[in-house]
UniProtKB/TrEMBL annotation, chains A, B:
<dbReference type="InterPro" id="IPR009014">
    <property type="entry name" value="Transketo_C/PFOR_II"/>
</dbReference>
<comment type="subunit">
    <text>Homodimer.</text>
</comment>
<dbReference type="GO" id="GO:0005829">
    <property type="term" value="C:cytosol"/>
</dbReference>
<feature type="binding site">
    <location>
        <position position="459"/>
    </location>
    <ligand>
        <name>substrate</name>
    </ligand>
</feature>
<dbReference type="GO" id="GO:0006098">
    <property type="term" value="P:pentose-phosphate shunt"/>
</dbReference>
<feature type="binding site">
    <location>
        <position position="29"/>
    </location>
    <ligand>
        <name>substrate</name>
    </ligand>
</feature>
<dbReference type="InterPro" id="IPR033247">
    <property type="entry name" value="Transketolase_fam"/>
</dbReference>
<dbReference type="InterPro" id="IPR005474">
    <property type="entry name" value="Transketolase_N"/>
</dbReference>
<feature type="binding site">
    <location>
        <position position="186"/>
    </location>
    <ligand>
        <name>Mg(2+)</name>
    </ligand>
</feature>
<feature type="binding site">
    <location>
        <position position="382"/>
    </location>
    <ligand>
        <name>substrate</name>
    </ligand>
</feature>
<comment type="function">
    <text>Catalyzes the transfer of a two-carbon ketol group from a ketose donor to an aldose acceptor, via a covalent intermediate with the cofactor thiamine pyrophosphate.</text>
</comment>
<dbReference type="GO" id="GO:0046872">
    <property type="term" value="F:metal ion binding"/>
</dbReference>
<keyword id="KW-0460">Magnesium</keyword>
<feature type="binding site">
    <location>
        <position position="188"/>
    </location>
    <ligand>
        <name>Mg(2+)</name>
    </ligand>
</feature>
<feature type="binding site">
    <location>
        <position position="260"/>
    </location>
    <ligand>
        <name>substrate</name>
    </ligand>
</feature>
<feature type="binding site">
    <location>
        <position position="186"/>
    </location>
    <ligand>
        <name>thiamine diphosphate</name>
    </ligand>
</feature>
<comment type="similarity">
    <text>Belongs to the transketolase family.</text>
</comment>
Length: 665, 665
């Protein structure tokens, strides 16, 4: 049992480590770590089920600091509870280049950082995904192997962000009762009092989405403990509103926005030391307090060992499956299944939209990979994401593998990140490509963290047709290709769609997006190749001796390129076609392959029903581009392709216009 | 007084026009127009203050169809109430290329379409902006000139989107009591029942953000009327939950998701004709019903005339100011003010961050332009957006011109679109550039609609420093430049910042973004030029005879380019520098200017602390780029520039590496 005095000193250890590190860095946010130290101390010293020496224990509780600017709270806790790769020296290196202790918590920098946070609202939505993963895996593997809580700490900023509102509505709907959200209710934001911009009754707001709600004094350890215990017994997710004082303990600045985002300064730190009766020097935690913390950190070792015993005792196939799933490795027969599926297409390649081709190969993948967790942001019949294996998850039944995310693209993408971070599952989404804009902050974070989430982005161009420019991606391929570490695929037919899915699944540490057509496409890969040609990002689809023209195209425009090449050949002009399903994989190929694929034909044309940006790396500044220069329009898709000049005739005309007359036969 | 029978027939006119147009197009969404026809009929026939013959009357009520897929509801209403540019032929052309009647309502296609909707949640947030504009202008010009309501119709999808949650929280906080939201509560989404994905108690949810709430049967005209009258008297924004049947009237499909997004089919339409006792042929509205509708449409002519009388009687300066403001023209002395301001910088150009330079020129602009309405998403002290003229708007006092948007970037951007669409004001935001991702859907819509909103995007690169990669834009310039019709400015110093602001203000029909540095920058424009050099998008900052090297740079990297050019010159290599504050304006220059500015030096180098994508249009595929290839990192900004190799030395090394040895003196 931790006495009140012990508690206070343990919490103060967080406060001083935070103040001192921020002061040393001359940069950072002391307000939250000081204000939320009591909540964190009770949670980490008495309830959080983790073992710092086995930080990746699959059944650990997850803790997410959604208010990522308060990163020193988390770093202090990791050090204090005994995570081996968080030393006092790491705390001294706060916010320095190359340190583990970045300005905001960065996933992968140190064990115990469960997700990258900072962009507000994201962590909360990640946590919803983690709770979904836990609930789903508990259903699959039983509570002997999966039975943990997900705790989140957020501030006012997180709650004002729309993404958090989407996430909490879904969490309430799905009755994710292992999810506990602490709200650091300090009533201060950067501009000043929260009341400058918000009058929300947060308790009522959470009740409206079916959460259990509790209000406490966030500096009262007993109240905090009682709230956590009540939350653990709830049948609904629990919102614990913790009334706190930002910068608690700083005699002159506490309770004001001055402590939010700037170092306290030497004088105020000295005053705080006095006020909190803290005599230790900077970065020194008195031995007895460190002992208390380390003891608290090792609280769950026995539980971890018992869990390991249960895993060891599990049936061999269940054990190996569980282990494989958390290792993130794919079943060895996946490649063979996809190759076999490709073989079924040979000779009778279907004329289908790539969204439908995606459904067909997903039928194979979802059959082979029980870790696939699908879903759609209320566009299931349009995204073709629900294969025969995908029963719907409901609030009372998690035996299914398909989430109806509602019209919540952003919440979906952020929760998918949480699912992937949790481990054991590979989430894929369904959405219109245009709405990748709604989920962009979460897609970026997936790329930054390097997690395997797969976004199925259908309706990928003006081929959308009648729904018009609000639903027609034009700049989205370019804008998504711009995100580092994200693979964007735009397959041309059923074979390429299968190959692109295969490549996306193989990215253990990268997210992918698949841009898929609404409209039917003629196949371009007519013969069977066991090899995955899309694996190199771009490949020669049609070769030509002494080619004068190279046509580079992706997705729905590859069939136009193929027809244009045939027309040109008929006119005596040798033309080759390069299919470009993935810029990023192409960029990773050896220079020789890239140079030879790009080639030296006098005419280079790129074709994509989107803007030119990015294509110059294939065709150069002097190359030609057949694509979009503006937003789309509303009308039948075929009319739009004609109207915007993305046609076989346009490609042929560009080539003819560019070739010196002599070269035309 | 409209009898119940008249009402029913008027509502059915909407239903049949919608059904018939969707059937003819073989594409569209009949469910909402049929389900919401009663609500719309009561509103448009009895309450909405508009004059179809004077559709741009500044004091008209605004009506926003946030559920934009129900576009035929709006088109039918515009035709029925007598808007001259919405004929029956236009309805027949529904969803055809070039028609006014696009798949979703497109601003600018026809009078009476107050905003472009379709991406869910946006219209509702636009309407919050319109209500802010009305309230602010009422404060400024008095209720003789501004005194109207803003009505919105939304569905479940809008309410699930996070952006709408941000917007309603702000509307409740600001007590926007002229805002009335109808919720078409039909309990159906594309995937099926709303209950698949949501359990929200919407009434409680709106009460939690301080709205007035009313629940009614959405097919009962008396109840609808009573609700509107109660809303008009409310001191808070009002949420009217209208229980409806989707596809009301279709005997076999009403109440199911089958009527949401597909034509009903010939048989079901015939059955609906029978069920609703409607004998007119397709696209024919019986004369008596059309008369009733046209009469309803001209209801407010007297009010419009009285308003015109009040405007005519107003004091000359007040009248001319009001007229100028709604015409969207700038005061003629703005240019002179900015030139005079630039002159004050000459000779003593300050070393400042461009965010600070922006504040300084905004001080001039906000003094000259009373239509400027500023704000920040809770980053006021970091964005430097609050100049001396900008008192804060509060729920009870709209005499200020500054909105504390809260941590709601998306809601802010969407509401800004509404403010610009309303007329009379020019909204500008404040936010971190990284969070442009959060507002991207709204920025895109601003560009699609062509409205003048200006986004101040500070902290524009790894210069952010310690906050780390979650807060450092890397791909954002490229991703924003990808949006058609959006101007992205990245000024290099105080002079360029003033020039870029001037250009942004001059875009009557385009949105702009200003990417501004957190860190201090050395000035690059040392002498005074009255001319706005940024107006051409890119210009030669440093010329050199027989230059061997051209260095193209934007923003904070221009000073590096200038120093590198000096170093190269010292080494005997003539180097010129081109400052590139705005790609889009440059692309609009005559070909000769573009070609000569790009030039033919053997070495071309682009420098931007961001990814290369897009720069090939200056340097070509074989040019060199000094910038980012990955996400950023956490550390002092100067360390990061060194770490990522964005330095004077790196630029010089690239040039030396590329030049044939003989050319080096």
């Amino acid at each position: 049992m931790i006495s009140r005095e012990q508690h206070d000193r343990m919490a103060n250890a967080i406060r001083f480590l935070s103040m001192d590190a921020i002061e040393k860095a001359n940069s950072g946010h002391p307000g939250l770590p000081m204000g939320a130290a009591d909540v964190a101390t009770v949670l980490f010293s008495r309830y959080l089920k983790v073992d710092p020496k086995t930080p990746l224990w699959p059944d650990r509780d997850r803790f997410v600091l959604s208010a990522g600017h308060g990163s020193m709270l988390l770093y202090s806790l990791l050090y204090l509870t005994g995570y081996e790769d968080m030393s006092i020296e790491d705390l001294r290196q706060f916010r320095q280049l190359g340190s583990k202790t970045a300005g905001h918590p960065e996933y992968g920098h140190a064990a115990g950082i469960e997700t990258t946070t900072g962009p507000l609202g994201q962590g909360l939505a990640n946590a919803v995904g983690m709770a979904i993963a836990e609930r789903r895996l508990r259903e699959e593997f039983g509570s002997e192997l999966q039975d943990h809580f997900t705790y989140v700490l957020c501030g006012d900023g997180c709650l004002m962000e729309g993404v958090s509102q989407e996430a909490i509505a879904l969490a309430g709907h799905l009755k994710l009762n292992r999810l506990v959200l602490f709200w650091d209710d300090n009533r201060i934001t950067i501009d000043g009092a929260v009341s400058l911009a918000d009058s929300t009754d947060q308790i009522m707001r959470f009740k409206a989405v079916r959460w259990n709600t509790i209000e406490i004094d966030g500096h009262d350890p007993d109240a905090i403990a009682a709230a956590i215990e009540a939350a653990q017994k709830s049948e609904r997710p629990t919102f614990i509103a913790c009334r706190t004082v930002i910068g608690f303990g700083a005699p002159n600045k506490a309770g004001t926005h001055k402590v939010h985002g700037s170092p306290l300064g030497v004088e105020e730190i000295a005053a705080t030391r006095k006020a909190l009766h803290w005599e230790a020097e900077a970065f020194v935690v008195p031995a007895d307090i460190l002992d208390d913390w380390r003891g608290a950190g090792s609280r769950s070792v026995a539980q971890r060992k018992a869990w390991e015993g249960r895993l060891a005792a599990a049936a061999a196939d269940r054990k190996s499956e569980f282990t494989r799933r958390f290792a993130g490795t794919l079943p060895s027969d996946l490649d063979a299944s996809i190759t076999a599926y490709k073989k079924t297409l040979a000779g009778k390649p279907p004329v289908v939209a790539t969204r439908k081709a995606s459904e067909d190969v997903l039928e194979v993948i979802n059959g082979a990979l029980p870790e696939m967790l699908g879903g759609s942001a209320d566009l299931t019949p349009s995204n073709n994401t629900k294969t025969s294996q995908m029963a719907s998850i409901t609030p009372t039944d998690f035996s299914g593998r398909y989430v109806h995310w509602g019209v919540r693209e952003h919440g979906m993408a952020a929760a998918m990140n949480g699912i992937a971070l949790h481990g054991g599952l590979i989430p894929y989404s369904g959405g219109f490509m245009i709405f990748s804009d709604y989920c962009r902050p979460s897609i970026r974070l997936a790329a930054l963290m390097g997690v395997r989430v797969i976004h199925v982005l259908t309706h990928d161009s003006i081929g959308v047709g009648e729904d018009g420019p609000t639903h027609e991606p034009v700049e989205h391929m370019a804008a998504l290709r711009a995100i580092p570490n994200l693979l964007m695929f735009r397959p041309a037919d059923a074979v390429e769609t299968a190959e692109c899915w295969q490549m996306a699944l193989k990215q253990r540490h990268r997210p992918s997006g698949l841009a898929l057509s609404r409209q039917n496409l003629s196949p371009v890969r007519l013969s069977h190749e066991a090899q995955n040609l899309c694996a190199r990002g771009a490949y020669e689809l049609i070769a030509a001796d002494e080619a004068k023209v190279s046509i580079f195209a992706s997705g729905s425009e590859v069939e136009l390129a193929v027809k244009a090449a045939a027309d040109l050949t008929d006119k005596g002009i040798a033309a080759r076609v390069v299919s470009v399903p993935c810029f990023e994989l192409f960029a990773e190929q050896p220079a020789a392959y890239r140079a030879s694929l790009i080639g030296n034909t006098p005419v280079k044309i790129a074709v994509e029903a989107a803007i030119r940006q990015g294509w110059d790396c294939f065709i150069g500044r002097d190359g030609d581009f057949v694509g979009m220069q503006s937003f789309g329009a509303s009308g039948p898709g075929k009319d739009l392709f004609r109207h915007f000049g993305i046609t076989v005739e346009a490609i042929v005309a560009v080539a003819l216009g560019k070739l010196p007359p002599a070269s035309v036969a």
